[in-house]
Amino acid sequence: MKNRRTWIPLTVLVLAIYILHSTPHMSLRTFVFFSGYPIKAITSGIIDDRYHNEMDNKDYEKLNAKAYTLTDPPVEKQTQGVLSNYLVRKYGIIYITDYLGDT
């Protein structure tokens, strides 16, 4: 009985993490959501960041990564910086997102 109490929540947690990071777009939306911008995570469109993908093509191939841009990005409250560009890397069967910057 104690085994079930341990395995069921653990299985649910692993499944939730997999679902939230199963595609590049889901990983990006999850990252923006947990960065404090839940509305923008849901409503903003996602497009390929052609500039970064072409300029850093060789580096991104080594990292197994691709850059994406939000069409309606969040604005950081303190600096008023636009948080539009993100780098999504593939690790095994999941995708991990990092903020890339505005340049």
From TrEMBL:
Domain of life: Bacteria
Name of the protein in question: Uncharacterized protein
